[in-house]
UniProtKB/TrEMBL annotation:
Annotated keywords: Signal
Leader sequence residues: 1-22
Lineage, top ranks: Bacteria, Pseudomonadati, Pseudomonadota, Alphaproteobacteria, Hyphomicrobiales
Domain of life: Bacteria
Protein name listed in UniProt: DUF922 domain-containing protein
């Protein structure tokens, strides 16, 4: 589940110099494994095609998603409403294939190389999510909307601005995947090495 936020403080909000930072958080991670079958690299890859996570119109080898919630404190300062505290709780969820434990030695070596490359690819996506949440945190702490008695305008204004950060992160992911999965790209090379054996 993705929580959509965005960026754009300069046009509307004011950064206040004496706002406490909430940077003492750490993301947590979950790995969801889906079982595949096979004795050869080709059989394992076919099983991935049958059992991999659904993403868009088809199935993928692996997937990275996240759950993001916030603890926020809004304060009325004169007629303005200011977000004085924003602390995230971020869970990054990696969905990865899990091969049988008793693979033949040659297939096992190919599989371990393949899955290590897939993990590296998905970790990159995880890092961009963490970067996005840190940017959201920086933007959020001290975000202020003038003439907002009762703090009714600030939430939709903040959501609009944070949406740009979310869109930027998603675009980075799409651009990265386009390169990684292109002809001759890293993912294609990992697949070819797996299906062709050691």
């Amino acid at each position: 589940m993705r929580t959509v936020f965005g960026f754009g403080l300069l046009a509307l909000g004011l950064m206040l110099p004496a706002v406490a930072s909430a940077t003492d958080w750490q993301p947590s991670e979950e790995v969801k494994a889906y079982a595949i079958t096979g004795r050869t690299g080709m059989e394992l890859y076919r099983s991935i095609g049958e059992h991999g996570p659904q993403a868009g119109p088809g199935r993928v080898i692996a997937h990275t998603t996240f759950k993001l919630t916030w603890t926020r404190k809004y304060e009325q300062r004169g007629s303005a409403c200011t977000l004085t505290y924003a602390k995230p709780k971020l869970i990054i969820i990696y969905t990865l294939p899990k091969a049988p434990a008793d693979l033949p030695a040659a297939t096992k070596a190919s599989w371990e190389s393949f899955i290590a490359g897939v993990r590296t690819h998905e970790r990159w996506h995880g890092e961009t999510i963490i970067e996005m949440v840190k940017e959201i945190e920086t933007l959020s702490n001290g975000f202020s909307v003038p003439d907002d008695p009762g703090c009714k305008k600030i939430r939709p204004e903040l959501t609009v601005r944070l949406g740009e950060l979310s869109n930027k992160q998603r675009q980075r992911g799409r651009d990265f995947d386009r390169v990684e999965m292109s002809e001759g790209g890293n993912i294609q090379q990992l697949i070819l090495k797996l299906v062709n054996g050691p």
